[in-house]
Write a structure and sequence with these properties.
There is one protein chain. This protein is an alpha+beta fold. It is built from nine helices and six strands, in the order βαββααβαααααββα. The strands form two sheets. A four-stranded mixed beta sheet has the order 2-1-5-6. Strand 1, helix 1 and strand 2 form a beta-alpha-beta unit.
């Protein structure tokens, strides 16, 4: 996502470990976008897989029920948290459309398709399209037909995407990447690694990201 008008010396590497099911991951990324714009910095973004709920059935679970079961939240707390996320998203230019029927689904195949998309130079647009499909459009991205359609919308060949989802190559790669991050102590998302040296966990806001970007830039001089 580097800006073509940004000098190469101000383009930095940012690795983001995330799950498409995580609303804070897209919030954090949109905050990062603001920080990059504020600092007039370009970025090479690489996305890495993380499953918040690796045992989630493919048909998923009602979001409200899931939050209550996993975190012990009351309905009022859950509604308040969703509204807070919606407000944050709106301020950042991203629409969260939660409803009583919203579901959380298994994200493994989405990570598989993202791994394939990386080989075509389309990982970043696919990641953003999947966030929108899940949170804005309420589409079931555990459904392979939906995944292929989302992939096609950003330029992936449908037949190749289908093959990637139905063979082991990219699935094994995703499992291997997840194991590496787990072995390195990553237990929550989003986790962002700047210039392969500095790690920030959680959606920390534009100003904190800007400070990190400036730190990386200063060290590169």
């Amino acid at each position: 996502m580097s800006d073509a008008n940004t000098p190469p010396s101000t383009v930095i590497q940012i690795d983001i470990i995330s799950d498409v099911m995580c609303p804070w991951c897209i919030v954090g990324f949109k905050q990062l976008e603001m920080a990059l714009a504020q600092t007039r910095t370009g970025a090479r973004v690489r996305w890495h897989p993380f499953e918040l709920n690796p045992d989630m059935p493919m048909d998923g679970e009602n979001l409200g029920d899931h939050i209550k079961r996993k975190y012990g939240s009351t309905e009022a707390d859950s509604a308040q948290n969703r509204q807070h996320i919606c407000d944050l998203g709106s301020a950042l230019g991203f629409a969260f459309n939660f409803s009583d029927d919203s579901r959380i689904v298994n994200s493994f195949d989405a990570h598989v398709l993202l791994d394939f998309a990386a080989t075509k130079g389309l990982q970043h647009p696919l990641k953003l399209a999947l966030f929108a499909a899940h949170f804005t459009e309420s589409r079931n991205i555990a459904d392979r037909d939906v995944l292929i359609a989302v992939g096609q919308s950003i330029g992936l060949d449908p037949a190749q995407a289908d093959q990637a989802l139905n063979t082991d190559t990219h699935a094994k790669a995703v499992r291997a990447q997840q194991a590496v991050w787990a072995q390195n102590g990553i237990s929550g998302v989003p986790t962002m690694i700047f210039d392969e040296k500095y790690l920030i966990s959680g959606a920390q806001g534009p100003q904190n990201y800007a400070k990190m970007i400036q730190k990386v830039q200063a060290e590169a001089v």
